[in-house]
Amino acid sequence: MFEKIHFIENQHFVLTPHNMIHEIEASPSDNAQQSVIHAKEQLSHKFNLDGRIRILFPDSDTPTDPEHYFYPQIFCLFECGPNYYTKRDNYNSYEIVFTYSGTGYLEYDGKSYTIEPGCGFFIDCRKPHFYKTQGETWEHSVLHFNGSISEKLYAEYASYGDVTFHDALDGNYHSHVENLLNIWDHFQIYKDLQISNTICDIVTYLLLLKAMDEHSDVIKVPETITYLSKYMRHNFSSNITLDFLADFANVSKYHLTREFKKYMGTTPIQYLISVRIMNAKFMLIHTPVPISVIAEESGFSDINNFNRLFLKNVGMTPRDYRKQHDPLK
Q1: Same domain, yes or no, for 90 and 234?
Q2: Distance of alpha carbon 6 from alpha carbon 16, whole angstroms
Q3: For every one of its 329 residues, what pLDDT tens digit does the chain have, with 9 covering 90 and above?
Q4: CATH number reported for the structural domain that contains residue 38 in this entry
Q5: Dmax of the chain from CA atoms?
Q6: I need a surface site. Which of 58, 70, 84, 169 has the fewest CB within 10 A?
Q7: Angle, CA 202 vertex, CA 173 and CA 179 arms, to 5°
């Protein structure tokens, strides 16, 4: 599982907050050195990490533009023994846990849950929470993240009243996480943007799981719609037309537009424009690239059309947007 990811690994011992800091400080990894602060934050909490732990830290403790982008704080794979537990609150993070084998137990927001293989939970770590191994072993993954509209999306998820979710062990949740780790662990162009989009994909998938559980007779997103939206996110700089998308889906462009809007809340072309505008916003803030080049690399062949659509969707011109976010202004 996640064989190609370069984790920091601690083998089979009881890991407390104090010796966790010692182990990280002893590591030659720059990422690990940068994350001592993260470990020291845990000293006010109670946990006992009994077993094997593999850790992936972010490139930096200082996130890039957290107001607009999701960012990961830490990812861990645990193979825990019977003494493992975590008990804490007031930790500024959102956490997703997913069980691969064994059983866990969660107490959160006045409820208790048994977390078996294929079951996970999504919680706000600022609230008191306690989870542990139930039985002899618990193999699970942990993703901590924050930023952007995390609070709003979590509130929507929590509104369903049950913080757990269920998925196949090698299902879409696992695939999304694997994609996130591959981007996170390797050099990527626009890495922060790709990571943010992938975390958004993960949370969106969990929301869709909850919605489909509650409205299974109403909501079932067709595979074609899911694939087309993913294709546009990964190929936004290409020459994508409504005719091309309709031909791929083997339906008329009118039928595709109607069905896409039914499930995604917008038309295919407006969805594509939104993805392109998001990329352009990132490049305007984080690169010195000329606006004409940003337009082209974001999928806009005509600079005037780019300026018009940017103004319509963002409320200001690309030039004004760059000036507004210039740290040296």
Answers
A1: no
A2: 23
A3: 777 788 887 654 444 444 443 444 444 444 444 444 444 444 445 777 788 899 998 877 667 788 889 999 999 999 999 999 999 999 999 999 999 999 999 999 999 999 999 999 999 999 999 999 999 999 999 999 999 899 999 999 999 999 999 999 988 899 899 999 999 988 778 888 889 999 999 999 999 888 877 665 555 678 899 899 989 999 999 999 999 999 999 999 999 999 998 888 889 999 999 999 989 998 898 888 999 999 999 999 999 999 999 999 889 999 999 988 775 55
A4: 2.60.120.280
A5: 64
A6: 169
A7: 70
> Distances from the Cα of 60 to the Cαs of 30, 71, 146, 235, 267, in angstroms?
9, 10, 14, 28, 37
Examine the domain organization and report whether 207 and 228 are in the same domain: no
In whole angstroms, what is the distance from residue 195 CA to residue 72 CA?
A: 8
- 80 near 89, Cβ under 8 Å? no
Beta bridge partners of residue 101, listed in sequence order: 139
Residue type, 301: S
Instruction: Return all residues near 177 (Cβ < 8 A) that are at least 6 apart.
Output: 75, 98, 141, 143, 202
Q: Do residue 31 and residue 176 come from a single domain?
A: yes
266 three-state secondary structure: coil
Distance CA(269)–CA(300), nearest Å, equals 13
Q: Measured in whole angstroms, how far is the alpha carbon of residue 144 from the centre of its chain? A: 9
Please check whether residues 73 and 199 belong to one and the same domain.
Answer: yes
Reference 98, options 151, 155, 24, 176; nearest CA is 176
Yes or no: say if 99 and 116 are a contact pair by the CB < 8 Å rule. yes
Q: Decide: 141 and 125 in contact? Cβ < 8 Å.
A: no
Q: If 0-12 CB within 10 Å is exposed, 13-18 middle and 19+ buried, where does residue 191 land?
A: middle
Q: What is the domain range of residue 263?
A: 221-324
